[in-house]
Design goal:
nucleotide-binding, nine-stranded mixed beta sheet, binds magnesium ion, alpha+beta, 18% strand, HATPase_C_sf, ATP-binding, 36% helix, 564 residues, five-stranded mixed beta sheet, binds adenosine-5'-diphosphate
């Protein structure tokens, strides 16, 4: 029976709706991209489920999206024959936001519409974007495989609540009717819709159809059934040869994949043939997602097998320190029945993972070399994450090390802009070490007494002040044969950088001051493990150093903070 009920939106939905309507007014047309994207996801899901259960196709295997409009009724209708939704599906999908961290995210919005619109774009506006242009939305849906009388009608004005009732719906799939706001009627127009579809959805691997343009006479004839015309290219973008894909196409596809509003910094599209056959299209976003450091952040690639969509967030194809990469991988070697469990065990995946990892690192190297400005913004957004690399991916540590950027005494700024290669290009001819100093902040260590001797000798020192830096250095013993050396540790030996004369003077001094050292040792008793004459200071009288084997200061703080 048609149990009708009225339900309230989850608080976060209400907040998001409100913000969206007020922040996205300058980019209204994206509502269509979002709805087409959902319809396309829904047909992908059906195609996937139908592999195991062909009967779900119900003698209607020509999957497509149809978009119609009615100027007089002031409506736009988006109709798909995809997987559809049951009553329960619709209540949870169109009444709540399942994404983790949503409440946190909404709390962080500033109220500044320009900034918020970018953030919301990144968060993914999704279905609710329908309310940017509509003051009433009706959704009619039936899940594939359920009987016709188990359809549902969902209706809402996008305020606090929605109505839901059971209906009979013969065709499976979802039909969404947008009742346009009075000042959004421009969207109920064939040319306008066609342009938006071309602009945002050309790459969708599914026919997007509009009613065929008709002559006046044909229009008069109301008995004639609508004829449909495909308006997009309807071939998966990654299957086209690179030379036939424009930058705009790549960028739009990225936005479709990632829900980002901004263009990506870089992408890499490759078809691999030989022992393994697959196509990958990988993107580096321009900005960090809000949940980059959350354990359950959405990441991973979209996996296709022979162009059939299999799963989102397949995180077996890239290491965690590259979790900011968005993209797809389409394999010819995996089975359509592949599951996450299989992915985790399949040796094919390991070789794909190392190839894809290398591809991303190469892409970053190229970006750093050819577009340093873009690399700078990449580093700002994702540098911290890349620093996790040497620990997670020891095999690639040298390559990753080349991509790292640091603050250094060479520049008078705390921007992390110096690469290890830059450092080495300026190193003294006899220098065997890459020197660094760690600390809590740039302000705190830029005038550290540890640096005195280095300043005097004109030797550059990297200044590491990110929490992760000491940990990173544990996994980065050397770069291009030069040892990475903490200048705050043990007895600093400048090796060949000290002249013979320096050394003699140091020894002489040590002899002379032996007695003083003993006295200080006694006085400090067991508060220090050793007292030594130091050659590192030129101005300060004394310095505290850390033993070679001891934990660094940052590590101590981290352990203390976690109660160890
Ligand atoms: P997202 O697409 O990022 O999951 P949306 O807000 O766009 O978020 O959609 C929410 C959910 O509603 C989708 O995940 C899907 O389960 C469901 N949904 C939306 N549109 C359709 C549709 N046309 N057919 C089937 N399910 C849909
Ligand atoms: Mg969506």
């Amino acid at each position: 029976e048609a149990q009708k009920e009225t339900l309230g939106f989850q608080t976060e939905v209400k907040q998001l709706l409100n913000l969206m309507i007020h922040s996205l007014y300058s980019n209204k047309e994206i509502f269509l991209r979002e709805l087409i994207s959902n319809a396309s996801d829904a047909t992908d899901k059906l195609r996937f489920e139908a592999i195991a259960k062909p009967e779900l196709l119900e003698n209607d295997a020509d999957l497509r999206i149809r978009i119609n409009f009615d100027k007089e009724a002031k409506t736009i209708t988006i109709d798909d024959n995809g997987i559809g939704m049951s009553r329960d599906d619709i209540i949870s999908n169109l009444g709540t936001i399942a994404k983790s961290g949503t409440a946190e995210f909404i709390k962080n919005l500033s109220g500044d519409q320009k900034k918020d619109s970018k953030l919301i774009g990144q968060f993914g506006v999704g279905f609710y974007s329908a309310f940017i242009v509509a003051d009433q939305v009706d959704v009619y849906s039936r899940r594939a495989g359920l009987p016709a009388d188990q359809g549902v009608h969902w209706a809402s004005k996008g305020e606090g609540e929605f109505d839901i009732e059971n209906i009979t719906k013969e065709e499976r799939g979802t039909r969404i009717v947008l009742h346009l706001k009075t000042d959004e009627l421009e969207f109920a127009d064939g040319w306008r819709l066609r342009n938006i579809i071309k602009k945002y959805s050309d790459h969708i691997d599914l026919p997007v159809e509009l009613p065929k343009q008709q002559t006046e006479a044909e229009n008069e004839d109301k008995t004639k059934e609508t004829e449909w015309e495909v308006v997009n290219s309807a071939s998966a973008l990654w299957t086209r040869p690179r030379t036939e894909v424009t930058d705009e196409d790549y960028q739009e596809f990225y936005k479709h994949l990632s829900h980002d509003f901004e263009n990506p910094l870089a992408w890499s599209h490759n078809k691999v043939e030989g022992k393994l056959e697959y196509t990958s299209l990988l993107y580096i976003p321009a900005r960090a997602p809000f949940d980059l450091y959350q354990r359950d952040m959405n990441h991973g690639l979209k996996l296709y097998v022979n162009r059939v969509f299999i799963m989102d967030q397949a995180d077996e194809f890239l290491p965690l320190y590259l979790r900011f990469v968005k993209g797809i991988v389409d394999s010819n070697d995996l089975s359509l029945n592949v599951s996450r469990e299989i992915l985790q065990k399949d040796p094919i995946i390991d070789s794909m993972k190392s190839a894809l990892t290398k591809r991303v690192l190469d892409m970053l190297e190229k970006l750093a070399k050819n577009e340093p400005e873009k690399y700078k913004s990449f580093w700002k957004a994702f540098g911290q994450v890349l620093k996790e690399g040497p620990a997670e991916d020891y095999a690639n540590r040298e390559k990753i090390a080349g991509l790292l950027r640091f603050t250094s005494t060479h520049e008078n700024s705390k921007e992390q802009a110096v690469s290890l290669a830059d450092y080495l290009s300026r190193a003294k001819p006899d220098q065997d070490n890459i020197y660094y100093l760690t600390g809590e902040s740039y302000e705190q260590i830029q005038n550290s007494p540890h640096l005195e001797i280095f300043r005097k000798k004109g030797i550059e020192v990297l200044l590491l002040t990110d929490r992760i830096d000491e940990w990173l250095m544990n996994y980065l013993p050397e770069f291009e044969g030069k040892k990475l050396t903490d200048i705050a540790r043990g007895d600093l030996d400048l090796g060949k950088l000290d002249s013979e004369q320096d050394k003699q003077e140091q020894e002489k001094l040590a002899k002379e001051k032996e007695e003083l050292v003993e006295r200080i040792k006694k006085a400090l008793n067991d508060q220090v493990s050793e007292v030594r004459i130091s050659h590192r200071l030129t101005e300060s009288p004394a310095i505290l150093a850390i033993g070679d084997q001891d934990l660094g200061l940052q590590m101590r703080q981290i352990l203390e903070a976690t109660g160890q």
